[in-house]
């Protein structure tokens, strides 16, 4: 990879440790025309592992009080949208965020799908991101933000795409068939895959964007 691009990816990885969920601009929000259906996507609120700079991956890490407040920030923003269905991962931080963010939306149904859960960090799960950066920063960045390099016994970001994108293909077909609007309660890396799918990002954009913890959402129209 070009050295300048690698340094950009490394900087993004380091910044995400210093301030998890810090983002520089509002997420994109299309404006559905009358009769158009849509998907709303957001990342879970701050978890205990976010605070402690721990690789969560597939392990459960509950929301902090701040994380619950972040999810509640979404509630009035989503209240005005007609959302029929919310899909969460099978992890508690995704489910709790969805319940709080959609508590003002009447009649919303909830489903789970494991394919939108966080990236499996394998042997890194439960370990410190800061320690990993101190011990071997090049390898730590490669494992965290390398597109096709998985951590030991874990998933690469490309592998996350390989389960998220078929889920999205099925979801888009379902939305068109059932004429419903859907909210997705996501994780940092599953949201990268979702945004690349809908926004046609290149790989470097996908690897360097930091998605906010709660508080904001993206909206995509389904034609």
UniProtKB/TrEMBL annotation:
Keywords of this entry: Gluconeogenesis, Glycolysis, Isomerase
Q: Which reaction does it catalyse?
A: (2R)-2-phosphoglycerate = (2R)-3-phosphoglycerate
The family classification in the record reads: Belongs to the phosphoglycerate mutase family. BPG-dependent PGAM subfamily.
What's a Pfam family in this record? Answer: His_Phos_1
Pathway assigned to this chain's UniProt record = Carbohydrate degradation; glycolysis; pyruvate from D-glyceraldehyde 3-phosphate: step 3/5
Role, per record: Catalyzes the interconversion of 2-phosphoglycerate and 3-phosphoglycerate.
Q: Where exactly is the site Transition state stabilizer?
A: 187
UniProt-listed GO biological process terms: gluconeogenesis; glycolytic process
Broadest EC class assigned to this enzyme: isomerase
Per the UniProt record, which EC number(s) apply here?
5.4.2.11
Membrane-spanning intervals of the chain: none
Which species does the entry assign this protein to? Answer: Sulfurifustis variabilis
| GO molecular-function term, one example from the UniProt record | phosphoglycerate mutase activity
Write out the catalytic residues in the record. 44, 118
Q: What is this protein called?
A: 2,3-bisphosphoglycerate-dependent phosphoglycerate mutase
**Keyword Isomerase among record annotations:** yes
Which residues bind substrate per the record? 43-50, 93, 118-121, 129, 144-145, 188-189
């Amino acid at each position: 990879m070009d050295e300048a691009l690698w340094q950009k990816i490394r900087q993004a990885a380091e910044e995400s440790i210093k301030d998890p969920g810090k983002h520089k601009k509002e997420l994109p929000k299309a404006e559905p025309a009358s009769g158009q259906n849509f998907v709303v996507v957001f990342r879970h609120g701050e978890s205990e592992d976010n605070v402690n700079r721990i690789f969560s991956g597939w392990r459960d890490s509950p929301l902090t009080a701040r994380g619950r407040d972040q999810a509640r920030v979404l509630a009035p923003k989503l209240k005005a949208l007609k959302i029929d269905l919310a899909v969460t991962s099978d992890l508690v931080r995704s489910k709790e965020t969805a319940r709080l963010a959609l508590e003002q939306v009447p009649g919303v149904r909830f489903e789970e799908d494991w394919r939108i859960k966080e990236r499996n960090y394998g042997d890194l799960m439960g370990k410190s991101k800061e320690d990993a950066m101190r011990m071997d920063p090049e390898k730590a960045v490669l494992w965290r933000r390398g597109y096709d390099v998985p951590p030991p016994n874990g998933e690469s970001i490309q592998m996350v795409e390989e389960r998220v994108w078929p889920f999205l293909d099925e979801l888009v077909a379902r939305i068109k068939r059932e004429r419903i609007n859907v909210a997705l309660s996501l994780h940092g890396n599953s949201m990268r895959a979702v945004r690349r799918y809908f926004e046609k990002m290149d790989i470097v954009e996908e690897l360097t964007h930091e998605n906010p913890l709660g508080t904001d959402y993206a909206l995509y129209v389904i034609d």
